Amino acid sequence: MATMRGSLRQRLVGLASVRAASTSSVSTFPKRVKIVEVGPRDGLQNEKNIVPTSVKIRMIDMLSEAGLPVIEATSFVSPKWVPQMADHIEVLKGIQKFPGINYPVLTPNFKGFQAAVAAGAKEVSIFGAASELFTRKNINCSIDESLQRFDQVLKAAQAAGIPVRGYVSCVLGCPYEGKISPAKVAEVSKKMYSMGCYEISLGDTIGVGTPGIMKDMLSAVMHEVPVAALAVHCHDTYGQALANTLMALQGVNFQKLLEAGTFICQALNRKTSSKVAQATCKL
Amino acid sequence: MGLFGFIMQHPQLVTQADRSKSSASTSSVSTFPKRVKIVEVGPRDGLQNEKNIVPTSVKIRMIDMLSEAGLPVIEATSFVSPKWVPQMADHIEVLKGIQKFPGINYPVLTPNFKGFQAAVAAGAKEVSIFGAASELFTRKNINCSIDESLQRFDQVLKAAQAAGIPVRGYVSCVLGCPYEGKISPAKVAEVSKKMYSMGCYEISLGDTIGVGTPGIMKDMLSAVMHEVPVAALAVHCHDTYGQALANTLMALQNHKPKERITCSGISGSRQLGGLEGPALSALAPTVTALSPSFRLQMGVSVVDASVAGLGGCPYAQGASGNLATEDLVYMLEGLGIHTGVNFQKLLEAGTFICQALNRKTSSKVAQATCKL
């Protein structure tokens, strides 16, 4: 069994790389995907047992060695709220900073931001939500008020040349509101993006989404935020995470759509009725 | 509000009316079948791979509960020698003991003609046979070549045809083999075509060791669909590497084929070579008959799954087994696809069998919703 497993693993690695090249259908997937590793923060934060600082540091170093391009290292939150993240300064200072790898840290407010910068943070993350009720229950204010609170962080970050990643929670459903409208997700994402976040991570916080809902939500958001600035953050609570992620990766291949439109119009010897094509087509 | 109460309010688990409303609001052209037939393999494929022998009465109750949940096809047992599969030793009692709900089929596995005869004598109205897309796998398992294995089934198929008994064909290792590694889509297509032409009404394509990923699934299906009508195809994904639902999603989707777009005689269609939305509707009025190159590769609409994700993997100790029916139904309902399954009753069936097996469910949905 052990021998078979070893040789199976070898065959699998070979299988994956060969197959990727031989996919016969028109590719609907991006050539590269940037993975943002959230285990050390989002992962550990939800684990019952407190993990020693040295273990966290070793975990992050191993993830760096694995080549993950972005590793969210810790959260500069009060230990009163999240005991697991109490050692945030030691962790950020203790990890090896590999060249080419980013180590963002969560900053729930301006105080956290200042502490993060003092500890050497070069990138931070902030949180919003697509649900009013969720925001109210969690931090006792409205979505707009929560974003206003981050304004100070964003301005200071901009002044210090520190990129800010924005998270939007509950994008496919909320434990309190239930269904969440794609338009609301688009509105919050647009706000955070225009406030200065370089990337918006859309989170299915309670894992209730299914692929059709993911697609609808992304369609709405992509009208307001460039797709290159979007990420998906799927929870596997209902076993849907990989399927939802697959759907998000497929998306609408906009460039190919434009090319197909151009081709058929040339073949039909007529002008496109698509305003986008008119605006982007060079003749 | 209890967890289950929350779930029942949830958009993904609402009534038919609400579901159709939410699927109607999907902005893009539909890329999924309207209905999916779920073939429940828990009582056979699932239990067969469980260590603990389950009493006959428990198996019967499990199948009855699955029938009450409305699953349209439930593979009840296997007429295999108890020497090989002790779990299935009570196949006659199980088949005779279960309630046969009208409108539900209860196929049984028949590994050879002797098993077929015993199945028919016990009242079987539908049987399943097994082939594989891997020569080495077939050689190691039943000590013959693929062709020889299919020849052995010829007797079964002829007798089944004479008796008016439909035969379902399984093809194993369609996305990879524990011995051969990579499996060519052409080989899968060849074996599927043989079994279909020998008389199988449906071919279930199994990723037996769960190594497949969505691109490989798509390539394999493209090849098979040249030889077998898509309506006669099913997918049977194992979750050994967590890929089952993603692979199933890929199989369900309609796809744009590879061929270069040609321009001869195009017609108005809502599915023009994968174009969607505003660009499509802008072009539609001026386009005429579709050339074959524009037609989409239609998705599969039959999916095998096992309640509670029962069944391990004989090739990877400790690994998970089949796609969990609960997780599959959750996704299909969310997509607005009709399954005919009563979700609450399905969850109850899963809870029942896991308690009887003294094991935790492998269904994420069940984990999220059940309080024990």
From TrEMBL, chain A:
<dbReference type="GO" id="GO:0006552">
    <property type="term" value="P:L-leucine catabolic process"/>
</dbReference>
<dbReference type="InterPro" id="IPR043594">
    <property type="entry name" value="HMGL"/>
</dbReference>
<comment type="pathway">
    <text>Metabolic intermediate metabolism; (S)-3-hydroxy-3-methylglutaryl-CoA degradation; acetoacetate from (S)-3-hydroxy-3-methylglutaryl-CoA: step 1/1.</text>
</comment>
<dbReference type="InterPro" id="IPR000891">
    <property type="entry name" value="PYR_CT"/>
</dbReference>
<protein>
    <recommendedName>
        <fullName>hydroxymethylglutaryl-CoA lyase</fullName>
        <ecNumber>4.1.3.4</ecNumber>
    </recommendedName>
</protein>
<comment type="similarity">
    <text>Belongs to the HMG-CoA lyase family.</text>
</comment>
<dbReference type="GO" id="GO:0046872">
    <property type="term" value="F:metal ion binding"/>
</dbReference>
<keyword id="KW-0479">Metal-binding</keyword>
<dbReference type="GO" id="GO:0046951">
    <property type="term" value="P:ketone body biosynthetic process"/>
</dbReference>
<keyword id="KW-0456">Lyase</keyword>
<dbReference type="GO" id="GO:0005739">
    <property type="term" value="C:mitochondrion"/>
</dbReference>
<feature type="domain" description="Pyruvate carboxyltransferase">
    <location>
        <begin position="33"/>
        <end position="283"/>
    </location>
</feature>
<dbReference type="InterPro" id="IPR013785">
    <property type="entry name" value="Aldolase_TIM"/>
</dbReference>
<dbReference type="Pfam" id="PF00682">
    <property type="entry name" value="HMGL-like"/>
</dbReference>
<dbReference type="GO" id="GO:0004419">
    <property type="term" value="F:hydroxymethylglutaryl-CoA lyase activity"/>
</dbReference>
TrEMBL record, chain B:
<dbReference type="GO" id="GO:0046872">
    <property type="term" value="F:metal ion binding"/>
</dbReference>
<comment type="function">
    <text>Mitochondrial 3-hydroxy-3-methylglutaryl-CoA lyase that catalyzes a cation-dependent cleavage of (S)-3-hydroxy-3-methylglutaryl-CoA into acetyl-CoA and acetoacetate, a key step in ketogenesis. Terminal step in leucine catabolism. Ketone bodies (beta-hydroxybutyrate, acetoacetate and acetone) are essential as an alternative source of energy to glucose, as lipid precursors and as regulators of metabolism.</text>
</comment>
<dbReference type="GO" id="GO:0006552">
    <property type="term" value="P:L-leucine catabolic process"/>
</dbReference>
<dbReference type="GO" id="GO:0005759">
    <property type="term" value="C:mitochondrial matrix"/>
</dbReference>
<keyword id="KW-0456">Lyase</keyword>
<dbReference type="InterPro" id="IPR000891">
    <property type="entry name" value="PYR_CT"/>
</dbReference>
<feature type="domain" description="Pyruvate carboxyltransferase">
    <location>
        <begin position="36"/>
        <end position="306"/>
    </location>
</feature>
<dbReference type="InterPro" id="IPR013785">
    <property type="entry name" value="Aldolase_TIM"/>
</dbReference>
<keyword id="KW-0496">Mitochondrion</keyword>
<comment type="subunit">
    <text>Homodimer; disulfide-linked. Can also form homotetramers.</text>
</comment>
<comment type="pathway">
    <text>Metabolic intermediate metabolism; (S)-3-hydroxy-3-methylglutaryl-CoA degradation; acetoacetate from (S)-3-hydroxy-3-methylglutaryl-CoA: step 1/1.</text>
</comment>
<protein>
    <recommendedName>
        <fullName>Hydroxymethylglutaryl-CoA lyase, mitochondrial</fullName>
        <ecNumber>4.1.3.4</ecNumber>
    </recommendedName>
</protein>
<dbReference type="InterPro" id="IPR043594">
    <property type="entry name" value="HMGL"/>
</dbReference>
<comment type="similarity">
    <text>Belongs to the HMG-CoA lyase family.</text>
</comment>
<keyword id="KW-0443">Lipid metabolism</keyword>
<keyword id="KW-1015">Disulfide bond</keyword>
<dbReference type="GO" id="GO:0005777">
    <property type="term" value="C:peroxisome"/>
</dbReference>
<dbReference type="GO" id="GO:0046951">
    <property type="term" value="P:ketone body biosynthetic process"/>
</dbReference>
<dbReference type="GO" id="GO:0004419">
    <property type="term" value="F:hydroxymethylglutaryl-CoA lyase activity"/>
</dbReference>
<dbReference type="Pfam" id="PF00682">
    <property type="entry name" value="HMGL-like"/>
</dbReference>
<keyword id="KW-0576">Peroxisome</keyword>
<keyword id="KW-0007">Acetylation</keyword>
